[in-house]
Amino acid sequence: METTLIKINSTDETEKLLFAAEILRRGGLVAIPTETVYGLAANALDASAVRGIFRAKGRPADNPLIVHIASFEELGPLVSSVPEKAVKLARAFWPGPLTMVLPKSDLVPGEVTCGLPSVAVRMPSHPIANAVIRAAGAPLAAPSANASGKPSPTAAAHVLHDLSGKIDAVVDGGPCDVGVESTVITLCTEIPTVLRPGGVTVRQLREIIGQVDVHPSVFKELEGGAKPASPGMKYRHYSPSADITVVRGGLDAFAEYVRDHQSASCAVLCFDGEERRFGCETFTYGKKDDPKSQARRLYGALRQIDESDVKRVFARCPDPVAAQAVYNRLLRAAGFKIQILE
């Protein structure tokens, strides 16, 4: 299969949008930019097309997909009910990096939900993603457009690196602004629960709907045999080939730890301006006190590590509260390997 690159700078480029939409309408796979990461899109109502997503990515068959819509009115047919809390959250955060898990309707194929009775839905704010959904005339199932388990793509080049020859097209809409996947909250539990942190914080959610819990799998591995209700819950994700250890502690203690454990093929993943503290190769992923810059640059840094000869990485730990989404992604990239310094 030859993968076509479609460069779109604005939603005024109708012919290019319609070209991408036509591929989707006939059951093809198109990577599209969103504000979070690039997504690998297929018609969410076409079971055969959805199965193609799993094949192209090498995605585990029990890892459900998120359905993307372009307007609130498109939510109703996909779910069996729309609770008041969903309405409130949509008013506050849609379009944007928030996914809601709700009881599904019969319209949604089991291939999308991996047999679960619920479906995850979001409305991206990226204008090109929104325009492609509208042009396709159907909701789009779209997990991250990367090889399963690898760092998510925040640029079209990342998608081509992983999936060229496996999908029909890539819509190049420039770099992603948020840089990590959407927040996922389930409204299928008595207390709404965050299953994956992202661009919308727990604090923001609580300001809109009151009590919100955080699922234990955000900070530790999902128990064996448990079925994930959302992407990003069960498997090791976002990982370069190198072995990563997250090290939590101050800069001085971190630098000493690296000195005591470094080898010829090791490197450090640190914050901007800290590079000179280490006697080995360094990669940076944003400013220490700026979670947004960390989120935008994390996956790019992990991909740079993958392109190097580094075998082992010591990663500076972001603030687990202020940068919860970044902390979660690093933990998963490391297989939950963390060293806490006194």
Overview of this structure, please?
The protein is α/β, with parallel strands linked by helices and 342 residues long. It is built from 10 helices and 16 strands. The strands form 2 sheets. An 11-stranded mixed beta sheet has the order 1-8-2-3-7-4-6-5-9-10-11, sandwiched between helices. Strands 14-13-15-12-16 form a 5-stranded parallel beta sheet, with helices on both faces. Helix 1 crosses helix 5. The radius of gyration is 20 Å and the shape is globular.
Summarize the helices and strands and which ones pair or pack.
Blueprint: E1 4-7, H1 14-25, E2 30-32, E3 39-43, H2 47-57, E4 66-68, H3 84-93, E5 98-103, H4 110-113, E6 118-122, H5 127-136, E7 140-141, H6 156-163, E8 169-172, E9 183-186, E10 193-196, H7 202-209, E11 213-214, E12 243-248, H8 251-261, E13 266-270, E14 281-284, H9 291-307, E15 312-316, H10 324-333, E16 338-340
Parallel strand pairs: 1-8, 2-8, 4-6, 5-9, 10-11, 12-15, 12-16, 13-14, 13-15
Antiparallel strand pairs: 2-3, 3-7, 4-7, 5-6, 9-10
Helix pairs in contact: 1-5
In short:
The protein is 30% helix and 19% strand. The chain has an eleven-stranded mixed β-sheet, with helices on both faces. A five-stranded parallel β-sheet has the order 14-13-15-12-16, with helices on both faces. Helix 1 packs across helix 5 (127-136).
What are the defining features of this structure?
alpha/beta; eleven-stranded mixed beta sheet; 19% strand; globular
Largest sheet data: 11 strands, mixed
Tell me the span between the first and last alpha carbons. Answer: 53 Å
Rg from Cα = 20 Å
Mean model confidence by pLDDT: 95
User: What is the number of E strands?
Assistant: 16
* Residues in β-strands, percent: 15-25%
Number of helices: 10
Shape: globular
Overall SS class: alpha/beta
Secondary structure: helix percent: 25-40%
Low-confidence stretches: none
What is the string of SSEs from the N terminus onward? EHEEHEHEHEHEHEEEHEEHEEHEHE
